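@channel sequence for tomorrow's demo:
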Amino acid sequence: MSSTNPSAKGNPSDKDRVVIFDTTLRDGEQCPGATMTHEEKLEVAQLLDDMGVDVIEAGFPIASEGDFAAVHEIAKRSKNAVICGLARAGFADIDRCAEAIKPARRKRIHTFISTSPVHMKYKLQKEPHEVYEMVIAQVTRARGYTDDVEWSAEDATRTEHDFLCRCVEAAIKAGATTINIPDTVGYTVPEEYFALIRMLRERVPNADKARFSTHCHNDLGMAVANSLAGVKAGARQIECTINGIGERAGNAALEEVVMAMRVRNDVLPFWTGINTTMLTRASKLVSAATSFPVQYNKAIVGRNAFAHESGIHQDGMLKNAQTYEIMTPESVGVKQTSLVMGKHSGRHAFMHKLEELGYHLAGNQLEDAFVRFKALADRKKQIYDEDIEALVDEEIAHAHDRVKVLSLTVIAGTQGPQSATLTLDIDGKHVTTQAFGNGPVDATFKAIRALVPHEAVLELYQVHAVTEGTDAQAEVSVRLSENGRAVTARGADLDTLVASAKAYLGALNKLMSRRGRAAAAERRIHSTEVG
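structure tokens (generated this afternoon):
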């Protein structure tokens, strides 16, 4: 296991241990269009637990029946991590959160309230003294359910210092064991955030009785830098997400804060319990589950993070890898060895390539991916790593889909109208229709609408080539919105229209899954009222 524990320097001190609090399933899922299915949440939670994440914020239980069910199931399955739920200051929120995390071996309630003047005036419409009393009440209520209570001062970086100190002192006195100081709108800078954490630890009388935490957003691109500045000032928990996903510009990226402390342990002498060799695997799983691509030049887990095209760089790498790489690919779960994949490659070589790329498939999922790989190899002369990534990401993302494409034939050209003949598998039943449209994509989407009636609005349709060349796979992104909520999905295929149909259906399946959860919740409420 490769963790960020600097064992080479002797036994690390517990005072330098940084707790990793992952909020991918809560703050990350609040990113527009990034909603995950119940099964995807469970899969992500299991990987986070296996990877060594200390605290998993599994969701916001009162937000929906689906969120409650996911948090409750993750709580039952967790092996090592503390399972945390989020709750506002209201007692109903805290009670619901406590119920959701109840099965966990180790559990935490994370409750918050705004403390900045702008939030108190316009959002809460309350006076500071009212907010102060609510802090005491909410922490006391949460402490009645568990000894592990975290309190957050929302918009702390724009809060008046005197008032923030009073609230922090009151929260600790009421029983909070972790105090989170969020940069909710990504407004602060490292020097300022360092001073804020240090000020709180020095001025609050009972500060030594709680662990301080960072929760930094990336609106100005400084979430990771601010989080590390907070740790240098004495915070010992970082709240972060895989791939840095989250509201607006996202959160501090888990992989970046962890590897920064590992690689630059000389100036950041802290350690975590994260198995860093699983970082790439986690990145790919979250990207597939949310249909959010990882930018190519993303630090640590991006496709180009260990790629070298410049002749000067290549020459240096051949002489000594340290000339242009400050960490090894293996340390984050990427292998340097590259296999040339094609139609003559066998199952063993395919499995090896998947592991090299950070994927771990088994059973039917592996077999389905191999069959699709062989079909692609028969149609495409050269298979790139990106082709395999697109193929497997789609396999993971659509594994639980109720509706799938079986066949699509499109007639297009200058002599319209264009038509699409489509056959779908809907819950095991094969149905076919033909539709006409203003172009082949329009015809294809109208055929889907005819077979799967819905009122969702297409907000985004985007196509790009996975690799270069005329035989490149097309990767299509589609975003659908319904009742004010949006979902995004991707589809990949050598045929752009087939990829379009897959992406559209992927988004539609997510909406159908959401409708199903909502209907189930209504039935439960109705049965309770009748009973």
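heads up for whoever presents: The mean pLDDT is 88.
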